[in-house]
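Case study 2.
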Amino acid sequence: MTTGTEEPQWRKVHSVTGVTPRSRHGHRAAAIRELIIVFGGGNEGIAEYLHVYNTVSKQWFLPAVRGDIPPGCAAHGLVCEGTRILVFGGMVEYGKYTNSLYELQASRWLWKKLKPRAPRNGLPPCPRIGHSFTLVGNKCYLFGGLANDSEDPNGNVPRYMDDFYELELQSVSGARGWSIPETKGGGPSARESHTSVAYVSLGSPKLYIFGGMQGSRLDDLWQLDLNTMVWSTPQTTGSTPLPRSLHSASTIGNKMYVFGGWIPVPESDKHNALGTEWICTNSLSVLNLDTMNWQNLGPEQQDDIESQLQSQGPQSDDPYASRPRARAGHCAAAVGSRLYIWSGRDGYRKSWNYQVCCKDLWYLETDRPAAPEAVLLIKSTVSMLHVAWRPLAAADCYILQIQPVCPRSSAGSDPPAEPVHPSGTDGLEGPDKNSAGFQSHQPQTEGTTNKEVKASAQDAPAQQEATVKSSMEGSYTERCSAGQQTSAVEVSSSAQQQLEQQPVSADKTTDFYSHTDQNPDEAMWFDVGVLKTLFSEVSHYFLPADSDQRKLPGPQDYQGREKRELAPGQTFRFRVAGINCFGQGDFSPVSEFKTCQPGFPGAPSAVTITKANDSVHITWEAPSSPSGRILEYSMYMAVRKSRSTSSEGPGQMAFIRIYRGTKTSCSVSSTHLDNAHIDCSASNRPAVVFRIAAKNEQGYGPATQIRWIQDPSKLRASASKVDNSAEADQDAADSSS
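Prediction:
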C-alpha cells in the first residue's frame, strides 16, 4: 500500500465519549475488530472493571460481564484469539501475585476460570508479574517475569525468572494444558517487564523478545524459531533503541513498533539528573522483521532525555502536541494498520515525590487505508439509493463513486426464472412466475457486480456497529450509543429486476454511461462525495469539473459542481475507498444496484431475529406501497445444494421459499435450519442467508437480504449444523432497508 517513503504519523484522539476509564499503568489491551478491550492495571488501587473502546464511534463503554469474573490485576499477561481473551497471572494486591488463568468470551462477555493440566515434565508456572504471554496459532508462550519469594504476605523478595512455557488452547473454549518445551541456543536471561511479539512470515513462525529489567534495563533482542525451538540473537542494523522496560511492542505487517518505557540516563547527562538514574521516554523505534533493520522515528533520543531532565514537574496535556508525551506501563493495541496507545505513567522524580498517569489516547497512522468491503444497498426508491459500507480501521473519511450502467439493448430485462423445486437446486422459488419483482434468476457470485448485495450492512445515521465478534449467533451485542443495540443480522436490499426497462434520457452524461458488459474500470466514474459517515442516501452525483481532477477532492470541491439526478429503473455501480493522512486507499469491489420502477412496493425493513430453543422467529416492518396495499410477502432461505448441482460456482446459492403470507413475521423451524447453507463468502463472516420481498398489485418489489451471523468457532465444532443451544436472545438488525 505505501510507497515506503512515508513515515508513520501520530494522531491524538479528541472528543471521546462514554464511560472513560480512570488513567492507570500496568494494564493490558487487545483488539477485536474495531474494538479495544482494556483490562487491569491501576493507580491508587488495582482496577477491576473491563473497559471497551470503539475506534469507529470514539466511545468507551462498560460491558455487563458475567461468569467467573476475575479480580482486578496488574502487570499480567493478555492475549486475544478470535473473540476470546486469555488473562494469566499478575498482581492482585501489593506483594500478592497469581498464576490463575481466565478466559473471556467477548461475544457474550462471559468470564470462565480455566484449569489447564500441569506439564508432564515439571511444575506449572508459579505466580508472577511482568511476564510476556504471546499467542501463536493455537498456543500461548509464557516467558519470564518476577516472582515474590517472601513468606510474609506483607514482604517482597523479588526473583527474576527465565522459565519458558507453552499453553495449548482448545478450538472453541478452554485450554488443554501446560508444557515445558525443550529449547536450544541458550535463551534470554531472567527478566521482567520485557515485550514479546510473534511474527509469521513465509518461513517458520518466530517469537521475538526485547528489553526488560533485571536490576538494570536491557536492550537485547532474542529470536525463537518455533519450528526448531532454537533461540538466537539476530544481527540487526540501524539505530538500536536504548535499554528499556515497561515499554510496548506491537506488530503491524512485517514491522515491530517499540514505544515508550523506562530508559537509563546516560553518564554524560547525570550532572543534570538530580540523582535520577532512569526516566520515561516517548521515543518510537521500528524493527523490520524481514530485514532486521532498526529505524528511530523520533524524537531524537538525546533531545528526549534533555527535555525530560529539564522538566520541573509532571507534564500536562498539550492540545497542540504532535506526539504522545513520555510514559511507561501504558497499553498498546493494533487495529488494522493503526497502533493505539492509552494511559501509562509519565515518570517519577524524587523532587516531585509523586507520579502522574497520562489520560490521553493516541494512534499511530502507519499506512493508507485498506480496500473496504463492497458497498451495500440499504434501501432503493425510484430516485434514491441508500448505500452503506463497513468501517475501515485506518480511514478518516471515504470517497464514494458511482457509475451509471446503460444496457446494450432497450429491450426489457430477462423475466424471472422458473420456480425452483424445494430440493435445493440453484435459483429462487418465485412467489409468482410472472411477477416483475423478486429477482429470481441465477444468484450472482459474491464479490462480483451483483444485483443482490451479499455483504453486510453498516448501520445508518450515526449508529456504528460495536459488535464484539465478527460472527454472533443470537447472543450479545453492544451499541455505542446509549440505550441502543446492534445485531448479528446484516441487512441489504436489492433493486428489483423489472420486466419494463425505462428509457435513458439523453443528457450530458449519456456519453459516460458504462454498458452492462463493459469492464467498470474502463468507463468513467463520478463522485458522490467525500464523506465522514458510513452511509449515503444517493439521489445525485457530480459531473467532472473542468479543472484537473488528479488531486484528491475535499468536501468543499463539489460546491458549484453540476449534478445529475438518479433516474427510475436505472442500474448504477458503486465503489468506495478510505482516506487518511497518507492519502486514498484502494477502492472496494464494485457493487451494482438499481433504482425502483414507480408503483412497486419497497423492501421490507427493520428486520429482527429472535432465537428460540428449536426455531428462529423473524419479524419486519411493512414497506411503502404506492400502488395499493401489500398483498403478500415471501421469505426465502439459502439451502445446501444437492450433489447434482455441486458443479455450480462456489458463490452461487440455492434458495427455497419458507414462508408466503400476509403477516409481517414468520418462524423458521429447526428442520429448515438443519438444511441451511452457511455462506462464508462475505469477509469470512459465516451466515445463514434469508431474503424477503413484498408484493402489491404491480408485483414483487426489491428483496431485503438478511445474513444471520454464525459463530465460526461453533461452526468448527459442529461443522454442518447451526448451534441452537444458546439461550434465547433478540438480535436487532444492523440497519434497515
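Helices lie at 301-310, 670-674, 712-717.
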